[in-house]
Amino acid sequence: MKFICGDRSLDLSVPQVMGILNATPDSFSDGGKFNSLDNALSHARNMVEQGASIIDVGGESTRPGASPVSLQQELDRVIPVIESIRSQLDVCISVDSSSPEVFLAAKNAGAHLLNDVRALKREGALQAAQQTGLPICLMHMQGEPETMQTKPSYQQVVHDVTTFLQERIAACREVGIESHQILIDPGFGFGKTLEDNYALLAKLESFAALHVPVLVGLSRKSMIAGVLNNASVDNRISGSVAGAVIAAMKGAKILRVHDVKETSDALKVVQATMAKL
Ligand code: 7PM
C-alpha cells in the first residue's frame, strides 16, 4: 500500500506517525525570528529521529475558542518552516491549513501533503488543492473552532460524519482529485462531545467502507483528559498512546501525535501483532 505524496511515498501497510509541529508564536517564539525557526526545525528533527515519517506544520490555532489568524500571518508562520524542513530533513511534510493561498505557497515551498480541518470547504480550496496535485486529508468538523464546542449535536454521530466525508470525497473527485490522493479523518474534538468522540473511536473500522486511508488525531485532546479526571496536558501521554493503539488496531493508517517516541514504540507492538492476524 504505497501512498504517493508529491515526490515521496508512504508505506501505509504499516501505521505511520505524523508529528505535530505548531508554527504558532505561542509554541516557537523566544523573541527573534531565527530562533523560532531554529526551534521549529530542531523539534521537527527530533520527531523524525523518534519515528515520525510525516511532519504536520500548522500556523492557525484551531483550538476550541480560538480566533482566526490572517492569511499573511499564516503564510509568515508556515512557509519558512516548510522550506527549512524541506532543505534539512528527509521526511514527508504536511501543511495544516484551510486556505487556498497557503496550499499553493506550501506546495511551492516543498510540502508533500495537505491537511485541511475544513475538508476543502473554503472558497477556492477544492480548486487550489487540485492545482497542487498533492494528496489531501479531509477532516470532519461541526461548526468553526470559535464556537464548535458550544453545543455539538448529531442524529447519529458515526453516520453523520461518514456521510459528510463521503460528500467531501465526491466533491474532490468532481474537481479531478483522485481517490488514491485522499485521506479521511473523523476529526476528534472538532464539534464533538466526549460521548461522540468515543462513539467514533469505537466504530472507527466502519470508515474503511469509504475505501480511502484513515488518519486520526486524538493526541492530548480533551477526549483523553475527559476520562482522566481532566488531567493536565503533561499527564495525557499514556491515554493518548492508548487511543492511538486502538485507532491503529481499528485500521487507522496515520496517527497524528505530539509524543512521537511513545506512539512509535506502541505502534510497533501493534504492527507485530497485526502481522499475525
Ligand atoms: C490547540 C488545540 C491547537 C487543538 C491545535 C489543536 C487535527 C488536525 C488539529 C486532527 C487533522 C490538535 C488540534 N487536530 N488535523 N489538526 N486531524 N487531520 O489537537 O485531529 O492538534 S489541531
Structural summary, described in words:
This protein is an alpha/beta fold. 40% of the residues lie in helices and 16% in strands. The chain contains nine helices and ten strands. The strands form two sheets. The chain has an eight-stranded parallel beta sheet with strand order 8-7-6-5-4-3-10-9. The protein has a two-stranded antiparallel ribbon with strand order 1-2. β6, α4 and β7 (136-139) form a beta-alpha-beta unit. α3 (100-109) runs parallel beside α4 (125-132). 48% of the residues are buried. The protein binds ligand 7PM. Ligand 7PM binds at residues 20, 61-63, 96, 115, 117, 137, 139, 185, 187-188, 215, 217, 221, 256.
Summarize the structure.
With 277 residues, the protein is α/β, with parallel strands linked by helices. Helix content is 40%, strand content 16%. Strand 5 (92-96), helix 3 (100-109) and strand 6 form a beta-alpha-beta unit.
Largest sheet: 8 strands, parallel
Strand order of the largest sheet: 8-7-6-5-4-3-10-9
Shape estimate: globular
- Count up the helices: 9
Rounded to the nearest angstrom, the radius of gyration is 17 Å
Taken as a percent bin, the fraction of beta residues is 15-25%
What structural class do you assign from the helix and strand content? alpha/beta
**How much is the average pLDDT?**
94
Hetero compounds = ligand 7PM
